[in-house]
Write a structure and sequence with these properties.
about 240 residues; alpha/beta; Rossmann fold; 2 domains; two-stranded antiparallel ribbon; 9 helices; 8 strands; about 45% helix
Length: about 240
């Protein structure tokens, strides 16, 4: 399938994943990324821009909204929030440093919201008999905020038995390297039957790592690297059905 699935196709894809889980229960594992897969972090990004605007004396940024973020471009978000080209040029570097300081913190990740349908689908996976593995590029210092978001939005909570949370041991570890390391940890849980991730490089790597599993790409946003999702991997916009 090429391109994002239509709503009816999306429902069929999610249904097929649940069927795989039921057939493999109680040992089948489902791997789900968090940021831009199960969770939308644009409210976090918007708040960080608002706070930077207050510290930098830029009233335009105090009205920054999640929809101002289109992809990962900070410069575009600054323009969308109302900064002139001159101000964007002047503030892109300090705003990027401010963003880097605060983005990977529990204080701000508490603002994340679910990708539509995400909590219900995660609960359906567990109800169908899956061992659910949240595998994220967030560092372990974000665990408290991540768990708070799970509780606030009724995601299955990590219990180290049925639901597992894998976070980077330290922030400096590259996401690409961590996802490969995490895959080895996930292998200890049981056979992987389905995978959901927004980053083309990662979902492709998972599909190669677990060729018998159903890999699904979340067509939300990503790093923008020139990597095409493998032709055999379907893309969905969210987790809504019906």
């Amino acid at each position: 399938m090429s391109g994002r699935a239509r709503p009816d196709q999306q429902e069929a894809i999610l249904s097929a994943a649940l069927q795989r889980v039921r057939r493999a229960a109680p040992s089948g594992v489902v791997v789900c990324d968090l940021d831009s897969t199960l969770l939308d972090n644009r409210p976090r990004l918007a708040r960080i821009l608002q706070d930077y605007g207050r510290t930098a004396g830029l009233p335009e940024l105090t009205g920054a909204r999640p929809e101002h973020w289109q992809g990962w471009s900070l410069e575009r978000a600054l323009r969308n929030a109302g900064l002139t080209p001159e101000l964007v040029e002047a503030h892109a570097a300090p705003a990027r440093r401010y963003l880097a300081e605060w983005f990977f913190t529990s204080a701000y990740c508490r603002l994340d919201v679910p990708v539509p349908g995400g909590p219900a689908f995660a609960r359906a996976l567990v109800a169908a008999g899956a061992r659910l593995a949240y595998v994220s590029g967030r560092p372990r210092t974000m665990e408290a905020g991540t768990r708070e978001v799970f509780r606030a939005h009724a995601f299955p909570l990590p219990d180290a038995r049925t639901v597992h949370l894998f976070l980077k041991p330290h922030r400096e570890l590259l996401d690409d390297d961590w996802k490969l390391e995490a895959a080895r940890l996930v292998d200890r849980l049981g056979p992987v039957v389905a995978i959901f991730d927004n980053e083309p490089l990662h979902v492709n790597a998972y599909a190669e790592c677990w060729p018998e599993a159903m890999a699904v790409h979340l067509d939300t946003d990503d790093s923008g690297r020139p990597v095409e999702v493998l032709e055999r991997i379907p893309s969905i916009g969210d987790f809504r059905t019906g």
